[in-house]
Amino acid sequence: MKISRILTGILPALALFLAISSPVVKADDPAMPAVGSMAPDFTLSSQEGKSVSLHDYKGQWVVLYFYPKDFTSGCTIEAHNFERDQAQYTAKKAAILGVSVDTVDSHQQFCTKESLTFKLLADPDKAVVTKYASTMTFGKNVVAARNTFLIDPTGKIRKVFVKVDPNPHSTELLAAIDELKKSGM
Question: What whole-number distance in Å separates Cα of residue 103 and Cα of residue 92?
Fold first, then answer.
């Protein structure tokens, strides 16, 4: 009897905790830029405090990846894997641009701590994550959803990865670039 009273008190609190702490991701958002469309241009500040625009990368492949938060385990794994494979991306004439709603200062600290050399872009106003329909709510906060857009040298989106697994993602992207190059894109 005592256990049922405890459970009766705990279960509603547990349900509320799970509702608040579990991320809600928009699936199949019609506002998400589609494969074959031109990637929406933007300008954001990098971890160095410099303005970076998507159009600056015309003529090369771009891995535009959105991630929830600096210093979290999944985001750190994903960033380390991109850094590990940086030479392969360079050989394929591909740039990596990471975007989250964190600040320039947070990105600077994250890059320093984790020895990251590619660009992390700050979108604290959520303009670009919204433009790419890559938002999710985490509790009361809106953060970037873990989505990636593979953009070809002409600026067209060639592949979209939604709700990616950070562990194999860099390897998947390298294979996708090779596949698209072989198919003539």
Answer: 30
Asked if the structure places residue 131 within a domain, the reply is yes
Greater pLDDT, 103 or 140: 103
Helix H or strand E segment including 34:
none
List the catalytic residues.
75
| Position 9 in a domain | no
84-125 pLDDT, tens digit per residue, is: 999 999 999 999 999 999 999 999 999 999 999 999 999 999
Is residue 15, in this structure, part of any structural domain at all? no
The DSSP letter of residue 38 is B
74 lies in which domain range?
Answer: 24-182
Q: Domain total for the chain?
A: 1
Contact 45, 52 (CB under 8 A): yes
Q: E strands along 9-163, which residues?
A: 24-25, 43-46, 51-53, 61-66, 94-100, 119-122, 135-138, 141-144, 148-151, 157-161
**Considering the domain boundaries, does residue 63 fall inside one?**
yes
